[in-house]
Amino acid sequence: MRLLLLVRAYQVYGHMKALLDPLDLEQREIPNDLDPAFYGFTKADLDREFFLGVWRMSGFLSENRPVRTLRAILTRLEQAYCGNIGYEYMHIADREQCNWLRDRIETPVPMAYNRQRREVILDRLIWSTQFENFLASKWTAAKRFGLEGGETLIPGMKEMFDRSADLGVESIVIGMSHRGRLNVLGNVVRKPLRQIFNEFSGGTRPVDEVGLYTGTGDVKYHLGTSYDRPTRGGKRIHLSLVANPSHLEAVDPVVVGKTRAKQYYSNDVDRTKNMGVLIHGDGSFAGQGVVYETLHLSALPNYTTGGTIHIVVNNQVAFTTDPKSGRSSQYCTDVAKALNAPIFHVNGDDVEAVVHVCELAAEWRQTFHTDVVVDIVCYRRFGHNEIDEPSFTQPKMYKVIQNHPSALEIYQKKLLETGQATKEDIDRIQNKVTTILNEEFLASKDYVPQKRDWLSAYWSGFKSPEQLSRIRNTGVKPEILKTVGKAIATLPDNFRAHRAVKKIFADRLKMIETGDGVDWALGEALAFATLLVEGNHVRLSGQDVERGTFSHRHAVVHDQETGVRYCPLDHVMMNQNEEMFTVSNSSLSEFGVLGFELGYSMENPNSLVIWEAQFGDFANGAQVIFDQFLSSGEAKWLRQSGLVVLLPHGYDGQGPEHSSARLERFLQMSDDNPFVIPEMEPTLRNQIQKCNWQVVNVTTPANYFHVLRRQIHRDFRKPLIVMAPKNLLRHKDCKSNLSEFDDVQGHPGFDKQGTRFKRLIKDQSGHSDLEEDIRRLVLCSGKVYYELDEKRKSTERKDVAICRVEQLCPFPYDLIQRELKRYPNAEVVWCQEEPMNMGAYSYIAPRLATAMKALDRGNSDNIKYVGRAPSAATATGFYMVHVKEQSELVENAITSDTITNPTIS
């Protein structure tokens, strides 16, 4: 029994004794559990025989030698668990998974590759090493964040991909930060070397389909690419490396989301054909919370991808921070234990060991469809970048590194000593690599970037910002609206819904039948349903989106006796694919889930992908995705996304965290020029195409319906930020007639150009094209309109006009000028609920002034502001103060003879 405890100790703690650090600097305390004396064994017991045959869990039975000496058992345990690989897997509760790994670890099949395989490994290691040496010799002062010290990553990845292809994988989505990225681009994903070298020399901007230069570009070690790569086994595998910023782990959920979308569109139900691979740094894997947020999605039904392979390039120092200052755990990979992922630590100097665990990781993923981690313990030969001086902060480590041979030198020596390769073999490969590198370098001087290359064939035919995309109507035939409306408003006869839910659906059915009083939730559901009927995939995700945070949506309802779920939007058509409409409550994550949905939206333009925040400012937790991906991804990387973000927004007295979605931040990141009126003629207008995204604050269910459908019904994609309502979800006046959704000429939603999203809604008082008696034109956005309108009615102020700016960005100059012409004698007021330093005011004011100047209506001095005073907090936490503030701003806008700017309270 004591011997079995000793065997188990090696299985649990053997990695603590493994030879993982190439520099041999790590001082680790070896647990007493690995000392035979701890169990009472002495030297006299070493040649004593023991019977292990009854204990299948040890893995030794595969040799059919149930009787062993203690010395033989210890030797085998040391070989299996304490060599250049350290295995952590005994934290996994699943016995089948543990036995599967144990068999592969303990079965004494040596990790010996034949001469042919070793030559392939050698070739790949030479390519990895020579690539870095070549860049270093040609661009001595350039930052490249090279892979020196971790060159075995490249042969490891290549063998992993070859093995994955053998096991059925057809497509791999890769995400990684800057360390070694150029090497991966050139040697794994096969980005043309001449293109990489051209980028080092300054590069030229890519051109679009009509020959115009486009985009801001990005530094070379942030760029992505895709390639159909042949494998060693004779197959082809599609590789795509996702572009990403310097926020090291921010790309993780994007990769996972893109992988999930690939699985949907290729009908990869078993999730075995499409796989995600993430390459991490040791400091960032341990330190950045989005790593856990991404891991946490791995087994959730609507987010799982059947397992992600994680590779950690563990160079044992994060920029200048030692591991003891960068994490609280023994290993940088310990966070993965929370998900029961096996972890293979491997000495990065042993290329065959790296190859072995990379292949093992591929086999694990394809067998158990869960995450797995490969931790390549290596080093960084130079500083954080090549012009950095690392000995400032790690003098002891870098004294060792200076005299440490490279992994290639170590492997070449091993092959020469064992007779597995000759010096001629090595020279032949090195000369071949050097020749190709030089040829590509010469070709780089004349390299011309190709036309934009969308990562997916689904994007073929979509327009760039320089190509005009015609405006399309978004109305739907009345008979289709009625048909789908009844389908989504009807519950099965035997379904026992909650009494309140039953009434909601009965009311919806009445709205469809009468055509009156369509509310926000039904307007949204009609947008989803009509897009589904047209063959588009719709996906809605976020915290509590199934019911809706404000108990309005009820996209999924529950039988009150059995708990069975029913989703009406799954039954819009006969034999509907159950994943065609996906609505899913997410984990309590913003950064990870928004990143996931962004990645999902990038794969195929024919999908409406939506992320909804529980409250608008909860999106603060995902700011990196907004700043680095969503607002600027097209400009930097020429990658479009039509992702929709719903951010509940509006001042209801619920305090600072439940009022503002930080509208001002999204408007500040908008790239339209406030002093130039673009071409606004409808047949020539490409204002939205040239803007980085759209920001709207919609006030009617019909307009919400059209803005969602507009996302799909055009030849380009732009992110859409929606300031979503809260109290308008049930507001008595926030209703639309069904005729506003249809495409019938003459109905309320139809204007000269058709039924479309209204960027501005004019005053609803039936004014003519010229109203000289109106003394004040109040421009506003969002739910404050209803309070202003109610105040105007109660005070019978017929000399005040109220217009709603439904699309804030890009600014609707043409419609604003139409209203300025309509009311030539009116003073111009911007009214908002938010404090003056927040909300839309700072964005609207200069653009409104530009529109006024063009009509000789004055300038910014002639724009009156009505709203809250400047403030540090977004809103008061005292309800009575909120009521007073709201009442004052509404009165100031409608009834005050003279508008005064607010004072700081």
Notes on the protein architecture:
By secondary structure, the protein is an alpha/beta fold. The protein has 4 domains: about 1-105, TPP helical domain (Helix Hairpins, Orthogonal Bundle); about 115-420, Thiamin diphosphate (ThDP)-binding fold, Pyr/PP domains (Rossmann fold), CATH 3.40.50; about 480-650 and about 695-740, Rossmann fold (3-Layer(aba) Sandwich), CATH 3.40.50; about 770-805 and about 810-895, Multifunctional 2-oxoglutarate metabolism enzyme, C-terminal domain (Rossmann fold, 3-Layer(aba) Sandwich). Helices cover about 35% and strands about 15% of the residues. The chain is built from 28 helices and 26 strands. The strands form 6 sheets. The protein has an 8-stranded mixed beta sheet. Strands 14-11-15-16-18-17-24 form a 7-stranded mixed beta sheet, with helices on both faces. A 5-stranded mixed beta sheet has the order 21-23-22-25-26, sandwiched between helices. It is elongated.
